[in-house]
Every structure is written in structure tokens, then in C-alpha cells.
From TrEMBL:
Belongs to the GHMP kinase family. Homoserine kinase subfamily. Catalyzes the ATP-dependent phosphorylation of L-homoserine to L-homoserine phosphate. The keyword Kinase applies. Its EC number is 2.7.1.39. GO terms for cellular component: cytoplasm. It comes from Faecalicoccus acidiformans. ATP binds at P81, F82, S83, R84, G85, L86, G87, S88, S89, S90, T91. It is an enzyme of class 2 (transferase). GO terms for biological process: threonine biosynthetic process. GO terms for molecular function: ATP binding; homoserine kinase activity. This is Homoserine kinase. Keywords: Amino-acid biosynthesis, ATP-binding, Cytoplasm, Kinase, Nucleotide-binding, Threonine biosynthesis, Transferase.
Length: 290
């Protein structure tokens, strides 16, 4: 049996739109074992067929390796919610690629794995931290993803997950086509300071640098709870952002007491929001054999 463990992720990290993602210590587990027919368990019935994203990623990797697609029993054990901005699709993509690599003992390197994952996902900002762990900044160089790991200080996080989804395509439609030059300059400055604050653990700068101009002013309209949560985080001097396209919001701090206070306030004011404590995952997806 091949077992693949893949972390949830938070893309964009407020000021890193489409270019910065973070692995979270919240794991999905995928088990693969030989079978006479394709069998999928552990997911809704509508996803239990050959169109399952894990299966599609496995098949694409077979093509890359020039191997025949085998039959297997795939069992999925994941409570990472769909359409909440926590990288549930990326976990499936990375799991399928790593499982195929292990199945055929191909020993692909991580950059090769990243390229296949990016071809499936369309961009590397979610799949890169899935593969490498920590925070990862990335961009596309023609058809090739380029990335750098951003080692993070000992941050804890609070994922605040509303009981309603956000469809990524709808979240993209709401974005503007152009941006004023001065806002672009401000975005660069905030993003550079944010990355440094992540590395050295400067919480004051982290909170101050969480001011986005590219997507959050527009996407927050899709999240009725955003303004209330954002105001609470500002009062507590906590860095906070919309995770991926939403609807999850993530706050980060090295002070567990402040995150606990945030959790209590959110649960009291918004009982429909699930709060889950997380940490920045120090490593990315990994494989074990049984």
C-alpha cells in the first residue's frame, strides 16, 4: 500500500496574490493499493469515478512517465473542506502525482513534481507549498514554475471557516482589470515587508503589512463575515487574510493567547464559523509504504 500525506494550504497570504502560498499543519491522507478495478472510497459518490482529481493527476503522471494507467483502490481520509480556500484540490493533485511516482518508483525530483502539478492547477501558488512545506513564493517563467521557500518563524494560525463556500471562478470574475500605479507600488512594499516579517517573527510588521490592494477589497464582498472578523483582528493587532479565494479567513500570530481570544470572540459573535487552530507546516507532502 502507498500512503500519501498532503497538507492544506492558504494561498495569496493577503498581499501575495497568485504568488505566495503557505502549507498548514492540517493533513489529508490518501491510500492506494492494487485492485482489479478502479475503486474510490472516502469521498462523495459524485467524485468516486475516473474523473476524480486524484485519479486525473495519477493518470497525467503516468503519461509523463510513459507508463500504463493501473487500477487501484483509492481511499481518501480528509476533513479539509471543499471550496473554502484551503487547497483541497491541490491536496488531490499532489497526492495523485506522488502516488504515481511511488507506484512506478520513478524518483522524480520536487521541481518535476511541481511542474506537473502546475500544469494541472494552472498556477503554482497552492501546489508549491503542498510539495515543499513552509511558505513558498512562486511565478511562471514561460511554461516553467519558479519558486523560493520562505522559512517561517514559529507562527500559529487560526482558520475561521464560514459555513458557505466560495466558487473560485466567481471570485476571479469580481476582480478589476486594471490597478492604479500607486496601489501597485504599495502592494510591492507591503508584500516585501510581509515576507520578511514571516521569516523573522515580527508580528507588528506582519499585521501592518496585511493590507492588500489586488483582491481582498473586492472578494470581501463575497464573505459577509469579513468586515466583522477583520475589525476584531485589527483590534487584537493580528495579521489576517482571506485564504485563497475564501470563504476561510486565516489569522497568524506567535502569541497563542491572542489567537485564543480571537477564537472566543468569533465563536461568540458568529457561531456559524468553524474555528480551527493550525500551524505553518514545516514540511510538504510525503509518502510512506506499507
Amino acid at each position: 500500500m502507498i500512503i500519501v500525506h498532503v497538507p492544506a494550504t492558504s494561498a495569496n497570504c493577503c498581499v501575495g496574490f497568485d504568488s505566495l502560498g503557505m502549507a498548514l499543519d492540517w493533513w489529508a491522507t490518501f491510500r492506494f493499493e492494487p485492485s482489479d478495478v478502479l475503486k474510490i472510497t472516502g469521498c462523495p459518490k459524485e467524485y468516486a469515478d475516473k474523473n476524480n482529481l486524484v485519479v486525473q493527476a495519477f493518470q497525467k503522471t503516468c503519461q509523463h512517465l510513459h507508463q500504463e494507467m493501473p487500477n487501484f483502490h483509492l481511499d481518501i481520509d480528509s476533513d479539509i473542506p471543499f471550496s473554502r480556500g484551503l487547497g483541497s484540490s491541490s491536496t488531490c493533485v499532489v497526492a495523485g502525482i506522488l502516488a504515481c511516482d511511488a507506484w512506478f518508483e520513478a524518483h522524480m525530483n520536487k521541481m518535476e513534481i511541481l511542474k506537473i502539478a502546475t500544469e494541472i492547477e494552472g498556477h503554482p501558488d497552492n501546489v508549491a507549498p503542498c510539495i515543499f512545506g513552509q511558505a513558498v513564493t512562486s511565478f511562471m517563467d514561460q511554461l516553467d514554475p519558479r519558486m523560493m521557500i520562505v522559512p517561517c518563524a514559529s507562527y500559529h494560525g487560526l482558520a475561521m471557516i464560514p459555513d458557505y463556500p466560495i466558487v473560485t471562478n466567481e471570485a476571479r470574475k469580481i476582480l478589476p482589470k486594471t490597478l492604479p500605479y500607486q496601489e501597485a507600488v504599495s502592494q510591492v512594499g507591503h508584500a516585501l515587508c510581509f515576507i520578511q516579517a514571516l521569516q523573522v517573527g515580527n508580528e507588528m510588521i506582519l499585521a501592518k503589512s496585511c493590507q492588500d490592494f489586488l483582491h481582498e477589497p473586492y472578494r470581501k464582498k463575497l464573505i459577509p463575515d469579513y468586515d466583522k472578523i477583520h475589525s476584531i483582528c485589527q483590534d487584537l493587532e493580528l495579521g489576517m487574510w482571506i485564504s485563497g479565494s475564501g470563504s476561510t479567513m486565516l489569522a497568524l500570530s506567535m502569541d497563542l493567547a491572542r489567537l485564543e481570544k480571537l477564537k472566543q470572540m468569533v465563536e461568540q459573535e458568529s457561531p456559524h464559523i468553524l474555528c480551527r487552530k493550525v500551524r505553518v507546516a514545516s514540511k510538504g507532502a510525503w509518502v510512506e509504504n506499507e
